[in-house]
Design a protein that fits this description.
The complex is a heterodimer of chains A (about 375) and B (about 300). With about 375 residues, chain A is mainly α. Chain A is built from 15 helices and no strands. The longest helix of chain A is centred in the first third of the chain and has 31 residues, at about 5-35. The chains are: A mainly alpha (about 375), B mainly alpha (about 300). Chains A and B meet through helix 5, helix 6, helix 11 and helix 13 of A and helix 4, helix 10, helix 12 and helix 13 of B.
Chain lengths: ~375, ~300
């Protein structure tokens, strides 16, 4: 493998894998301090995530919204923004998905499903685009504003679900009226996972193709890489940044809509499950590359699915998955410090080798050239 | 009950709530002010708040003394903030991403370690009764303030004086305004920033203790929701001046107390909307005070959060 390719693979694959392995090690040590056995924890993590068909189904079901909420972080990051309000966009998307039938009765069947999902994507896109607008035109830091907006969105959600939109039949757990049966997202034929997984993967692939294969995506990356250079070249940075925010927000809103249409069938408080925050972590581990988001989301879906197994078997609190995610996030960020070191080390090695070649005696040079000729002759033969 | 007395009751409740709810805001914004003066932005204070609330509750529960809990809360806050400082000292690590990571790690650790603390009661921080002169129970309740609040007042004054008039304050401000100048004088910029972040975390931890040992006075997983983040925005609003942080914290405490105040007089509509008021207020204030064209007056020059 050529040196530069090796450095790139090290930075983008080996470092994240090492960071995740380190997080698992730390987590094992952490539960050991609490009295549980680390090896049993690791085995249960694996079993709960990828052990049998049921775990796989659970994992993939959790991975579907994570793919989309990770895009809500990855796409704006490519435009240079650090948006972490995916939770708010998801919650509003779910609210609108369940709430649209209150205003306009959607047609039965697939058309209705498309309509409600489109509505949730639009709302999510508008929400995060607002954060982008605030940043571009008022200079408000987008991390703070998007997080504040996500708390606002949760407040709005709770107000509507427990108030005007409440289903009178839902007594213990306030929720909206359920969606019409024909508008729900069904399971994929043959598998026990809903269609949302496919839409999540399609969104990631589409985002990747847009980002790396289209002019608009390239322009967005330029704005993200060096805003001043983009302005010098004449790129419309405001429009590009706000579009990137809108696209990311649309993905998160779609995630909320899919959660309502496929999993919960109505909007209630269990929609607020921290999917947006896990999506931030997924995006960071995937180095904000939409293609890499797919396997990383499956991995983190696995962690989430293993969490309930850990709770049942080892009596660990369900926050243990949050702790694992926290360790993973910290180590991923710390590994950023090692980025580029492999490339530097390889360049150094190459320089040492070149110096060695320059200083060898003529006898050694003759011997080396003879050996090379022999090798070439052997290959040709 | 007449309308006038209804509104008077709400006003009194909001006033009392301004101090009660504003105490954690005060401590966290003072801590963040110190951190940002050295030009580190610590978004992880939300996680620090939750973790220190749990640690404070645990300390008070295990030892029976609320002040031991307060100390433990401060130490927990300092430790988590130290992690933030050390991570950010590594090359190529993004401040803001680290803050988000610590937000998640702090909350996760707090929920995990605090599982056994949800039911029990812990010794609470004593109150100072300032409403003895009134006969009304409501005024008395409103003027019953947290014993930590005077400490916060003193801390704000001390910090304002220290940052302006002492050598340590000058070193912190130098690290924040010009790392070149600090380095030229022989101070390690990283060390100053890590120490400032740790001190800020300790102060923010005191705010966490106020949450779990005074109001609401118990440990559960919904204890803090974004208050650490509001405090970060408060510091920008207060233009990095500790005394202005005090005023801003009281303002936001009042806004946060509006929901429970209305509920206490029987108005239950829009409870969630009123609870969302502090976030909306913070957002409006940020929109009003920030500008894309010029840096904010008083911003530490090395800080990357305000443009």
């Amino acid at each position: 493998m050529s040196d530069s390719r090796l450095a790139v693979v090290f930075d983008s694959v080996v470092l994240p894998v090492l960071a995740l392995a380190g997080a698992l090690l730390l987590f094992g040590g952490f539960v050991w301090l609490g009295g549980a056995s680390p090896t049993e924890t690791w085995m249960l993590l694996f079993k709960g995530a990828f052990g049998d068909a049921f775990s796989w189904q659970n994992t993939l079901q959790r991975a579907a919204p994570l793919m989309l909420t990770a895009l809500c972080v990855a796409i704006p990051q490519r435009a240079g923004l650090m948006v972490i309000g995916g939770e708010g966009a998801l919650v509003l998307g779910g609210l609108v998905c369940a709430g649209l039938p209150y205003l306009v009765a959607p047609p039965a069947g697939v058309a209705g499903t498309v309509l409600v999902l489109l509505a949730s994507a639009l709302v999510g896109g508008a929400w995060i685009a607002l954060a982008g607008v605030l940043r571009q035109y008022r200079g408000v830091n987008e991390t703070i504003s998007s997080l504040l907006m996500s708390y606002l969105a949760i407040g709005l959600f709770k107000h509507f679900v427990e108030g005007p939109m409440r289903d009178p039949g839902s007594l213990n757990k306030p929720s909206t009226l359920p969606l019409n049966e024909s508008n729900l997202l069904g399971l994929m034929p043959g598998y026990e996972v809903h269609w949302g997984l496919l839409w999540g993967a399609v969104a990631c692939v589409a985002a990747g193709l847009w980002l790396f294969g289209s002019t608009h995506g390239f322009a967005t990356r330029v704005v993200g890489g060096n805003a001043r250079a983009a302005r010098l070249v004449g790129l419309p940075s405001h429009r590009l940044i706000i579009t990137a925010c809108a696209l990311g927000g649309a993905c998160a809103g779609l995630a909320g809509g899919i959660e309502v249409a496929a999993v919960h069938t109505n909007a209630n408080a269990s929609l607020i499950a921290g999917l947006g925050y896990t999506g931030i972590l997924v995006s960071f581990v995937a180095r904000h590359n939409p293609f890499a988001v797919i396997p990383v989301a499956i991995l983190f879906g696995g962690f989430g699915s293993a969490g309930s197994l850990l709770q049942r078997r080892l009596d660990l609190p369900d926050a243990s998955v949050l702790v694992l995610q926290g360790f993973a996030f910290v180590l991923i960020l710390a590994s950023a410090a090692l980025r580029g070191r492999m490339g530097d080390w390889l360049v150094q090695q190459q320089a040492v080798r070149a110096e060695r070649v320059a200083h060898e005696t003529s006898r050694a040079r003759l011997a080396r050239e003879q050996a090379a000729l022999d090798a070439a002759r052997k290959e040709a033969a | 009950m007449s309308d006038a007395s209804l509104w008077a009751d709400v006003a009194v409740a909001v006033l009392g709530g301004a101090i009660r709810v504003g105490t954690p805001f005060l401590f966290v914004s003072l801590g963040e002010c110190l951190t940002e003066k050295s030009s580190r932005i610590n978004l992880g204070l939300e996680g620090v708040l939750v973790l220190s609330a749990m640690a404070g509750f645990a300390g008070s529960y295990l030892t029976g003394s609320p002040w031991a809990g307060v100390l433990l809360a401060g130490v927990a806050g300092a430790l988590l903030a130290m992690l933030h400082g050390l991570l950010c000292s590594l090359p190529r690590v993004n401040d803001i991403a680290t803050g988000i990571a610590l937000m998640l790690l702090g909350s996760g650790l707090a929920f995990y370690l605090g599982k056994g603390l949800i039911q029990p009661q812990a010794a609470q921080i004593p109150s100072i009764e300032l409403g003895m002169w009134s006969d009304s129970a409501q005024v008395q309740a409103a003027l019953r303030i947290n014993a930590l609040f005077p400490l916060g007042l003193a801390l704000a004054a001390v910090m304002a004086w220290a940052l302006a008039d002492t050598r340590w304050g000058l070193i912190v401000r130098m690290a924040g305004d010009s790392s070149d100048a600090a380095r030229a004088l022989g101070y390690s910029v990283n060390k100053v920033r890590v120490l400032a972040t740790m001190a800020g975390g300790f102060i923010a931890g005191l705010g966490g203790a106020s949450l779990s040992l005074y109001y609401p006075g118990s440990w559960n997983e919904g204890l803090s929701s974004g208050q650490g983040l509001i405090a970060v925005a408060l510091v920008i609003f207060a233009r990095w001046r500790p005394m202005a942080c005090l005023g801003a914290a009281l303002l936001f405490g009042g806004a946060g107390a509006l929901g429970p105040a209305l509920q206490s007089v029987g108005i239950g509509w829009g409870y969630h909307l009123f609870n969302a008021m502090p976030y909306a207020l913070t957002l409006l204030i940020l929109v009003w005070t920030c500008s894309p064209k010029r840096a904010l007056q008083g911003a530490p020059m090395e800080l990357g959060v305000s443009r």
